[in-house]
Each structure stands twice: as structure tokens, then as C-alpha cells.
Specification:
Number of helices of chain A: 7
Structural class of chain B: alpha+beta
Largest interface: A-B, 41 and 33 residues
Strand content of chain B: 5-15%
Largest sheet of chain A: 6 strands, mixed
CATH architecture of the largest domain in chain B: Orthogonal Bundle
CATH superfamily of the largest domain in chain B: ABC transporter involved in vitamin B12 uptake, BtuC
Order of helices and strands of chain A: EEEHEEHEHHHEHEHEE
Shape of chain A: globular
Radius of gyration of chain B: 23 Å
Bound molecules: adenosine-5'-triphosphate, magnesium ion
Helix content of chain A: 25-40%
Strand order of the largest sheet of chain B: 1-2-3-4
Strand order of the largest sheet of chain A: 6-7-8-3-9-10
Order of helices and strands of chain B: HHHHHHHHHHHHHEEEE
CATH class of the largest domain in chain A: Alpha Beta
Strand content of chain A: 15-25%
Oligomer: heterodimer
Chain lengths: ~240, ~325
Amino acid sequence: MQPIRGEAVRLENVWITYSGAGKPAIRNINLSIPFGVLTLIRGPNGAGKTTLIETCLGLLKPIKGNAYLLGVNTKDERIFEVRRKCSYVPQDFMKPPYEHYTAKKVIEMGLSSNRVITDPLPDYFQYELEFYAKELDVLSLLEKPIGILSGGQQQKVFIVRALIRRPKLLFLDEPFSSLDKESREKVTEIVVNYIKKHRGSSAIIVSHSFSKIEEYADIIVTINDGVITDIRFQR
Amino acid sequence: MLLMIPLLGALLSGFICGMLGYYVQRYGVTTLSFTIAHSALAGAAISLVLGFNTTLFTLFFAVASALLIGYLTSKSPIRRELICMGLFSLLNAVAILMLYMSSTNVLSTVQLSTILWGSVLAITCEKIIAIVTIAATFLVYAVIFKPQIDAILFDQKLAEAEGVNVKLHSTILLLFVGSAIAIILRITGGFLVFSLLYNPVASALLLSKRANIQQLISPILGSSVAIAGLFASFMYNLPVGASIALLSSVTLLLSYVSRVTINYMLAQRSVRSKEGIGEAFTVHLNRVLIYQNVSDTVRFITVPAELPTGTGLPSETQRSPINLLDS
Ligand SMILES: Nc1ncnc2c1ncn2[C@@H]1O[C@H](COP(=O)(O)OP(=O)(O)OP(=O)(O)O)[C@@H](O)[C@H]1O
Ligand SMILES: [Mg+2]
């Protein structure tokens, strides 16, 4: 499990087809994302942004080509160990009103990838939990069941869960979709600061509308109808 | 006293099936466990014909198929359900062919009818100890790995993305299911063991939407139908497996009816409690459609049936108005 230095994500001529679907969702994707950068992926609905992210994480396996996450081929048996260094905020995060786990419990789950009941939570947990929850204005909601929080509040809880894992690589799929303008700016600021503070960490953000993040992005990938149509490096 | 052993056996079988069945549902491995149950039946049939120890051979088949399915589904690009159904057909064909080709004295044995239809006599002290051991081991496992299991129960895809070894935990669950099935198979019969694994939890999912309550009532329902089935089989001299399966199906049906009724009543309350929100509504299994007249158009909104009334009525984000006349 020795990761190759220098590349957070590498996709080589990757094709993905969903089972049952005739036409591939993404085709012939070549992409290399280094450590320590903020990458923005944009494109219209159905372009293949979510597919691209889940391919990077190895949740979807290429039918052709190879995908490497932190230097490890996603087809490798032990890819799940590499994923422990990554975080993901999915696009379809909403939970139904009867979901009973509290917001705090949901955040705590982010640290359970290989925890057993007797393992203590890391000592920074409580501090960072309060820090991020305060920043995102969900501190008073932590003891409430996640299902009764509003969409935006739930999305913030998932963002806290992603950050508290201290990931080497942070995947955010439309993290602004349910947030108000103020919160969008706050999340942008938090993510930008996270990358600055945890040197070498990368973030990959999917967003088809919110442009503020563009100012901070080092790489902007545009995807359209399953193919990358433009890769722009800023600064 | 004579009744104690079968009673205890039925109670424990129902309990362990209800308990494991809950995880089977939430992990989304129902089809896999279905195949394992029938693989156990094939194993039992083969052992009978070849004269091997039935319990051991059934156990071997159940465990081997759990591992095989786990392996195949991780290696092959073919959909998991297709693999399972293919395997299921193959195993049942093997079981029936084995029985068909065997000598007639196998066909007339009590043992054969036991593995096919189940028998109260199959409940022995050893079996009870075995079931208790499996249930206790599972509980210990579930407590030790609670953080990871909670993450899977909450959101399987996210858990996988975060590096929880979902495949390993699914396989462990299927191994527990396989072992439990191998023991319980001769009580309920090979064709019906799956009903005990499926119906109580399906009823629990209908009766409550809260995971912690579902988890609680599923084993209770399992034990209740198993005991009731046992009594029915004693009283009316019916095969025990079929009695249990029938009662569990009736429970499922009643749960469905009560869910629909509860939804209907909830909907009536929500429509009444907020004036003007809707004039008419229809109830689906877990959604309520409320129609409203807005000026001269008809719109409808859908809300989850469990939403409490008054304050809990749909917020703007949960409401999805669709203009019927526009579309
Ligand atoms: N589970 C699935 N099965 C079959 N096809 C799918 C599945 N998920 C996505 N697709 C198809 O793959 C293509 C890309 O979908 P994807 O979800 O990656 O788009 P997206 O860029 O994330 O869109 P959005 O902006 O709406 O989130 C679409 O054409 C979609 O129809
Ligand atoms: Mg998407």
C-alpha cells in the first residue's frame, strides 16, 4: 500500500458504463490531480460529474482504462484502506425524517472506518467538532436526530463529518446545493483554509453553478456529455 | 416438560432469524441470503443421498455458498442478483435430481420429509445450544464492531467511500445467516426457512419507520410467529414449517394493512390541521399526496406519511409543488 508520490488522483483513458445502460456515462477520461490543490469540476446536469468522482473513489470501476487513488489502482483488493485517507460528501445526502441517528453520531461515524467499540475517538475530535459546527452554525443541532434537520443543516453535518476525518483528499459533490449564500461562502472559506493548513491535502469539488469557488480553484475541469472538454490551470 | 424443548427451539429460531434478517435487509443482501438458504437445502439433500452427516454437510454448503457468492460478486461484472438467481436454480436442480436418482428407501425416510417440510422432532438440546451460540457470537460481534456496522446501516455507500470494509462485514453477516439456516432448516423445512428470515423483518419495516424500533420488533415478531406456528402445528396436526411460514405471511399482510391505515389517518390529520393546504389526498405506502386548488389550477404536494401534524408540516424544501395544468 505504498502510495505513489505526487499524484492524488490519476485517471488513464477511463471509460465507465452503468450496468444496464447502453452508452458509457464517461468516456476516455485522462486526468491527473496533484497534492495540495483545489480542483473544481463543472458541467451541466448529466455530464458525468458524480460518475467521475465515484470513479476516483473506486466506487465505480472502469470497464476500460485505469483509475488510481493516492497512487493505488482502484481495482486493487485493498482500495478500502486508501479510502480511509479520503472524505466524501455525496450529492444525494438527504435522510428521511425518521432517521434516528443524531447529528453528532453521524459525524462520529466518519471516524469509524476501522474503529471497534473499545477504541477511543481521537483526542482532537471534540475540539474540531465544536470548531466546525460553530463555523457552520449547527452546534445547537448536534443532539438532534439528523432526519429532522433541514436540507441545508443536514448538508453541513455531512461537511463536518468529511472534514473531521482530516482527509488527504476531500471529495465534495455539489456541496452548495442546499446552502444559502452566506453558508456557501463559509464552506468555501473552510475548504480553502483546510488545504492551506493541512499541507499536501487536495480537494475536488463538483459544482455546476456557484462561481465563487472558481476564484480559489487551482484547476478547473469542464466535463460535458461524458468527456472532459477543458482543463484549465490557474495561477 | 416435553414441550419445553420445541418451544425454546421455536423461540430461539424466530429470534435469531428476526435479528439477522434485520441486518440482511439493511445491508441489501436479501437475494444473497435467499440463495444461501437454498444452497443449504441442496446440501441437506445431497448428504441424505450420500449418507453423510446432514447437519455438518448442510452447514458446509451454507458457509461455502456464502463465501462463493461473496467472492463471485466482487470479481464478476455481472449483477449480483443474476449470479444469485443462477446459483439458486442450479442448486435446487441438483437437490431435486439427487433425490430423484437416489434409491427409493431414501425417498420414504422421515429424514427426507424433515429437510423438506420441517419437523418438531428435529429440535434437540444440541440444536438449541448451537442456536444460542450463534446468536451470542453475533451479538458480541455486533457490539465490538458497532462503529463500523452503524456506519454501514446509516449509509452504505458513504461507509464504503470512507474505507469501511463493507464487503468483509457483508460476508461475515452471510456466514452467520448460513450457520443459522443450517441449524434451523430441519425445523422449518428447506423451502420455508427463508420465510422466517424475511417476513418478520418485512413486517417490522412496515410497522415502524424508526430503525431502532424495527430492530427491536423484528426478533419479537420472529419468535412470536415461530411459537404460534408450533402450537398451530400441534393443535391441528399440521407440518410445523408450513404453519410458521403461513403465520409469518399473515403477519406481513396485517402489517401492510395497518401501515396503510396509519398513513391514511395521519394524512387526514395533516390535511385538517393546516387549513387550506389541501382539499383531497391519496395515500401511498409512505408518501401522502395532497392536492390543492391554487386560483384556477390544481397542484399537489407530497409529504412523508410520518410527518407529525402542525409544526411538522412540510417545510418549503420538502414540498415539491407540481403544476398539473402546466405539465
Ligand atoms: N445508476 C445509474 N444507472 C444508469 N445510468 C446512470 C446512473 N447514474 C447516472 N447515470 C447516467 O450517467 C450520466 C452521468 O450522470 P452523473 O450523475 O454522473 O451526472 P452529473 O454530472 O453528476 O449530473 P448532476 O449535475 O445532475 O448531478 C447521466 O447520463 C445519467 O443518466
Ligand atoms: Mg451529480
